[in-house]
Amino acid sequence: MNIIKTEIEGLVIVEPRIFRDDRGYFYESFSQREFEENVCRTTFVQDNQSMSSYGVVRGLHFQKPPYCQSKLVRCIKGAVLDVAVDIRKGSPTFGKYVAVELTEDNHRQFFVPRGFAHGFAVLSEVAVFQYKCDNYYKKESEGAIAWNDEQIAVDWRLPSEKVILSEKDKLSKPLADAEFLFDYNEKLY
Prior knowledge:
This protein is 6% helix and 41% strand. It contains two helices and 15 strands.
């Protein structure tokens, strides 16, 4: 796997080595050994998948301790703009984000460590999105930041009138009003 560092420490893009021939292609989508050697020492315990239509924005979500999660995400059908926002108080990149286009053609994955809010916008007609999590989902631990927070100013690459949100995401607060934020100096692993 090829690891591409981003401008925010800990957020990395994972590109697989793809072997193509006249039958199609093959690649290893995940190796625990390679991941731990090159990215982060963690164990994924849950795989999730969603299907969404054009304009859907899911996020910006996170889970509070002790149920916080790292995620390794990818788009297996269609295209999404995947976004991770640093919500660790005291971090030199607090409130900054990285956006990565993940598509069925580029096969890229994006690693979002604990301490970040995560979301994605569907850019294609339909997208099937998969993610590995290193902790189990716990409803009582949910947290969210408003997708359209002016302080963060994510360019979702969608016209705002086309954005489709869940009722829960419509109620999310901006980063400045967040009820919970991570501490940059706290160990999350």
